[in-house]
Amino acid sequence: VLSVTNVLFVNKEEGEALLGYSAGQKSIEELISDLQKLGPKIVVITDGKNGSYAIDANKRIYKHGIISSKIVERTGAGDAYSSGFLAAIFYNKTVSDAMDWGSKNATSVIAKVGAQAGLLYKKDFGEN
After folding, report:
1. Beta-carbon-side half-sphere exposure of residue 122 (alpha carbons within 13 Å)
2. Terminal alpha carbon distance of the chain
3. Helix, strand or coil for residue 63?
4. Cβ–Cβ under 8 Å, residues 31 and 46
5. 65-120 pLDDT, tens per residue?
6. 103, 115, 118, 1: which is closest to 52 by C-alpha?
7. CA 105 to chain centre
8. Distance CA 108, CA 103 (A)
9. Mean pLDDT, residues 52-70
10. Cα separation of 22 and 35, whole Å?
């Protein structure tokens, strides 16, 4: 499945487990590169308060910090990040822009109760 995957989203612990690594055994850069070697064109790793990381098809690694906000509930944060990221990719944005959209969407969701309240629309990212 991974050999035909365009975008893979995992949190740090899932990535380590997928590769059979112990927690902290590899740096994020090594982890994300090793995951990409399994086939996905783009790999995104979320790491809680440490933000997110991505590697593009050209093997360029990006880091995006978290956006400070009030946290009401974390339910749906990862899904909101992924959907924001994928929406940006759909609209031909860069990986860096996609990480920004994902972070903004996740930040909005954790400020509300539940996994759907707070989800953003295209216009909320300054797009028509």
Report:
1. 10
2. 35
3. strand
4. no
5. 988 888 888 888 899 999 999 999 999 999 999 999 999 999 999 889 888 888 99
6. 103
7. 11
8. 9
9. 94
10. 15
CA 111/CA 72 separation, integer angstroms: 5
Residues 91, 123, 44, 78: what is their CA dihedral angle, to the nearest 10 degrees?
Answer: -140
Q: Give the three-class secondary structure for 43.
A: strand
**Strands lying side by side in the sheet with 42-46:** 7-11, 42-46, 52-55, 61-64
* % of the chain surpassing 70 pLDDT: 99
pLDDT at 31 over 90: yes
115: tokens are: 């996994």
Please name the residue ranges forming H helices in 23-123.
28-36, 77-90, 95-110
Give residue 128's pLDDT.
64
| pLDDT for residue 127 is more than 80 | no
How far lies 71's CA from each of 59, 98, 118, in Å? 33, 22, 12
Assess contact for 41 and 68: CB atoms under 8 A.
no
Token pair belonging to 2: 């991974």
